[in-house]
Design brief:
Helices cover 78% and strands 1% of the residues. The protein has 24 helices and two strands. The chain has helices at residues 2-42, 48-55, 58-89, 95-101, 110-121, 126-135, 150-175, 178-186, 191-220, 223-227, 233-243, 247-272, 293-324, 326-329, 332-366, 369-378, 386-412, 424-448, 452-460, 465-476, 478-494, 497-502, 510-519, 523-552, and strands spanning 90-91, 289-290.
């Protein structure tokens, strides 16, 4: 009797595992389909458009993209690494605050900070106005840097993306063995000598990983480069698709952009090589040293600059702009934008968490190499710019819609129109391709903390895999589920490229409307929409900052 009872759950568990595995592989293929579509587009028969682009604007795309990558890499490292070293190794006025507050600029999208600084630094803005008043000089009599330029774009990206480097560098510095750092000091090296010769080489993998994340965000951006009139592959894809109506050229530009993404990933992996960096010390990093006098002031200023420039100053500028455009906040149109943005973000986050839970649980249950590969395949979308994903979805979906419409017209005489193209469903699909990896990583990490013995015990009581997931794992994964949903929610709120290309007719979001207002030089109205996006983005960033502060204590 006992053996028969045990056999039942085992067989149902095995059957459930096969179903879950098959479902996970099918889901991963569905999520990765746009990548294949872009690859197929790139080998389509050549067009005159591609030849024209290659001989005219393509060199500019390459040059601007390389300049952005080089500048942002230097910028995020210069802002993130010294500040991470200072808060990890020293005590000075404000060091406890900076320890977590330096993460806050992550809540500021690059295109939003671009709007804020354009209002501050343009000719009619307060900075140049004060400069003319104080110096007595007029237009043309003084030099002032042009914010809407490649250099300005590099500065904007660096100010909001340096936290990627800061977070990983800080984690590396905190985890480094105290005896290694003390050995550097015993050899006569000061604090910065120890930093350069010991701590920095050991933290190199984390710094490279953080810089690569910042570079992928830079390559994926559309709002900032478009607003600053910096021609990159992302803007080129939009021009080829929307202005020139050449699908093949858009796909070919998308593949070249993917080559840049692959280059970033290859450089990061090559930087690590086969080297291993392990902390084998029995104790953690040494107690932080107290800084006084000029050194304390210098450390304070070094940490205050990225926080002020990357968040406090642009946030204040946005608040002033929103106050000027307060009528927008009370309009019916603004309420519709908020509703559209929140509904898209909510639907996507729910779907992403459900799909990620299926993928993560299938990998845990089956331990199949195929399911593991499927999970990695489903996570590829996060490395792809939204414009690439939009091209990969719109082309096959629009062709399917046209075939279906032609069939209905010929068979039934019904003008069906386009069912999926330009629909909310297609837009959510694009979001899932782009952001599913975020939810997947959060849930895989959460499941890894649950001991396998718990689900074995549940199965021995006759529970099927689905019941084990619902009654055992889901309650224990509540925190991971909430974190995953929140992160996806915020990323959807900020997303522009895919939304801009795929949104339904007369269906705008806060991000798209902020971009449209800014493009029309209506910065007051853009500030109101941008401020809401920043406020939503602060939620997970503050949660991350509080977690960091607790762990450090």
């Amino acid at each position: 009797m006992a053996l028969q009872a045990g056999a039942g759950p085992g067989s149902s568990s095995a059957g459930g595992g096969v179903v879950l595995s098959a479902g996970a592989i099918a889901l991963a293929a569905f999520i990765a389909a746009p990548i294949l579509a872009v690859a197929l587009l790139s080998i389509a028969p050549g067009t005159q458009t591609w030849s024209h682009l290659a001989s005219t604007v393509l060199p500019g795309y390459v040059g601007n993209t390389l300049a952005l990558m080089a500048g942002v890499a230097v910028g995020v490292i210069l802002l993130g690494v010294p500040s991470a070293w200072l808060v990890s190794m020293f005590r000075f006025p404000g060091s406890r605050l900076f320890d977590w507050a330096l993460v806050v600029p992550l809540a500021m999208p690059a295109y939003v900070i671009a709007y804020a600084y354009t209002d501050l630094l343009q000719f009619s803005g307060p900075v140049q106005g004060a400069l003319r008043t104080l110096s007595g000089r007029q237009a043309g009599e003084y030099w002032f840097p042009e914010v809407r330029s490649v250099g300005g774009a590099i500065a904007m990206f660096s100010l909001v993306l340096y936290p990627y480097v800061y977070l990983l560098a800080r984690a590396a510095f905190v985890a480094q063995a105290a005896n290694l750092l003390e050995a550097g000091r015993l050899l006569g090296r000061g604090a910065w000598g120890t930093f350069a010769l010991v701590a920095l080489p050991l933290a190199r993998p984390g710094i490279a990983a953080g810089a690569s994340l910042a570079l992928m965000e830079t390559l994926a951006d559309f709002g900032t480069v478009s607003y600053f009139s910096v021609q990159t592959f992302t803007t080129g894809i939009f021009d080829a698709w929307l202005s020139l109506s050449d699908v093949a050229a858009a796909g070919q530009l998308a593949m070249v952009l993917l080559a840049f993404v692959a280059l970033v990933l290859a450089l990061e992996r090559a930087n690590r090589g086969r080297a291993r960096y392990e902390n084998v010390a029995a104790r953690a990093v040494a107690a932080r040293r107290e800084l006084r006098g000029v050194h304390a002031i210098g450390a304070f200023l070094a940490c205050a600059f990225p926080l002020l420039s990357g968040f406090l100053v642009p946030a204040a500028a946005l608040a002033l702009l929103a106050a000027e455009g307060s009528a927008v906040l009370l309009s019916t149109r603004f309420g519709e934008l908020v509703r559209n943005s929140f509904s898209l973000a909510a639907l996507t986050s729910i779907a992403a968490v459900a799909f990620a839970l299926l993928l993560a649980y299938a990998a845990r249950l089956s331990r199949s190499a195929w399911v593991a590969r499927a999970n990695r395949l489903a996570g590829l979308g996060y490395a792809l710019p939204g414009a690439v994903i939009a091209v990969g979805i719109l082309v096959p979906v629009s062709r399917f819609d046209n075939l279906l419409a032609d069939w209905f017209k010929s068979a039934w005489g019904i003008e069906l129109g386009l069912l999926v193209t330009g629909s909310v469903a297609a837009l959510i699909y694009a979001y899932l391709v782009r952001f599913l990896a975020i939810a997947l990583q959060a849930l895989e990490a959460g499941l890894a903390k649950i001991h396998p013995g718990m689900e074995d015990a549940a199965r021995s009581l006759g529970l099927a895999p689905g019941a084990v997931l619902a009654r055992v794992h889901a309650p224990m994964l509540r925190g991971s589920l909430l974190s995953a949903a929140l992160l996806v929610f915020v990323d959807v709120m900020k997303e522009i490229p895919a939304t801009f290309m795929m949104r339904p007719f007369n269906f705008d979001t806060l991000a798209v409307q902020a971009y449209n207002y800014a493009a029309d030089e209506r910065l007051a109205e853009a500030g109101a929409a941008s401020l809401v996006i920043v406020a939503v983005g602060l939620i997970p960033v503050i949660g991350l900052a509080v977690t960091m502060a607790r762990k450090r204590q």
